[in-house]
């Protein structure tokens, strides 16, 4: 079964509401009429609702950049799944390496977030990836498998069908140092093999695995030509309307 490519923009902690709405409108215009691929943008929480309103009625999907695991309560700084849905999000990024590295989120916490998202009907993008030290130590596969095993703990097959995985080597994020298409493909194939141990092979074959880490207009085509790369998660270049338009229109 063919996998519909997903081009996702992660705006991180950038853009005020007016800037976000302007960029969202440009992304919607650039995505018009494209039926063979999906486009998603993840604005900061403060712009989520404004962006969702701006792209309403278009094919562009809106995502949160993280999500709390309780419905409500005394959890200062967290945003719950129902709150994300209420703001207009359909998807959510979980376990981004900046959450793991800068804010100390571990696999157990990420698993809680992922299951909460799924329980409330948000489609999660689970991010995995090794640091440079881990790659150089030869532990890329071990680290990625552990992140998948713990992150996907108790995720049912039906839920897995709605889950997207993003492979983002930490050393490639925001560094301008993209993984080569061979390096990326190797890990993507490994991730799919791990998924087919956890789930049925046909299901593993349907899961979209995105690559993230310095994706640009210049390298998107060769990455997307790899058999197990089903989309990209773009940081820096997604903030530039022209660059992201070119990425959306990968060939
Ligand atoms: P980058 O970020 O494209 O700026 O490297 C990717 C990401 O963090 O998702």
Helix and strand pattern:
EHEHEHEHHEHHHEHHEHEH
User: Might you state the CATH topology name?
Assistant: TIM Barrel
What's the β-strand tally? Answer: 8
Helical stretch tally: 12
Helix content: 40-55%
Domain count: the total is 1
Radius of gyration, in angstroms, nearest whole number: 17 Å
Stretches with pLDDT under 50, minimum 5 residues: none
Assigned CATH class = Alpha Beta
Tell me the strand order in the biggest sheet. 1-2-3-4-5-6-7-8
Which key terms come to mind for this protein?
251 residues; alpha/beta; globular; binds 2-phosphoglycolic acid
Briefly characterize the structure.
By secondary structure, this protein is an alpha/beta fold. The protein has helices spanning 17-31, 45-54, 81-87, 97-103, 107-119, 132-136, 140-151, 157-160, 181-198, 201-206, 220-224, 241-248; strands spanning 6-10, 38-42, 61-64, 91-94, 123-128, 164-167, 209-212, 231-234.
Describe this entry's structure for a reader:
This protein is of the alpha/beta class and 251 residues long. It has a single domain (6-248), classed as TIM Barrel (Alpha-Beta Barrel), CATH 3.20.20.70. It has helices at residues 17-31, 45-54, 81-87, 97-103, 107-119, 132-136, 140-151, 157-160, 181-198, 201-206, 220-224, 241-248; strands at 6-10, 38-42, 61-64, 91-94, 123-128, 164-167, 209-212, 231-234. Helix 3 links the parallel strand 3 and strand 4 (91-94). Helix 7 packs across helix 9 (181-198). The two termini are 20 Å apart. The mean pLDDT is 97.
């Amino acid at each position: 079964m063919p996998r519909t490519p997903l081009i996702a923009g992660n705006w991180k902690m950038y853009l005020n509401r007016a800037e976000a709405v302007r960029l969202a409108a440009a992304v919607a215009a650039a995505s018009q009429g494209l039926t063979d691929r999906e486009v998603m943008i993840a604005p900061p929480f403060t712009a989520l609702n404004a962006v969702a309103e701006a792209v309403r009625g278009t094919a562009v999907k809106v995502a949160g950049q993280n999500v709390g695991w309780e419905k409500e309560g005394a959890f200062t700084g967290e945003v719950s799944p129902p709150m994300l849905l209420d703001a207009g999000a359909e998807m959510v990024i979980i376990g981004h390496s900046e959450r793991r590295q800068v804010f100390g989120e571990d696999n157990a916490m990420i698993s809680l977030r992922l299951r909460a998202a799924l329980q409330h009907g948000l489609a999660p993008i689970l991010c995995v990836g090794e640091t440079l030290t881990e790659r150089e130590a030869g532990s890329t596969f071990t680290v990625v498998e552990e992140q998948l095993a713990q992150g996907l703990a108790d995720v049912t097959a039906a839920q897995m069908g709605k889950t997207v995985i993003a492979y983002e080597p930490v050393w490639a994020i925001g560094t301008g140092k993209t993984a080569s298409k061979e390096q990326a493909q190797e890990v993507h194939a490994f991730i799919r093999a791990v998924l087919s141990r956890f789930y049925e092979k046909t299901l593993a074959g349907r899961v979209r695995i995105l690559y993230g880490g310095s994706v640009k207009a210049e390298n998107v085509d060769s990455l997307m030509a790899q058999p197990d790369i089903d989309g990209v998660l773009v940081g820096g270049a997604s903030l530039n309307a022209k660059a992201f338009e070119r990425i959306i229109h990968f060939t």
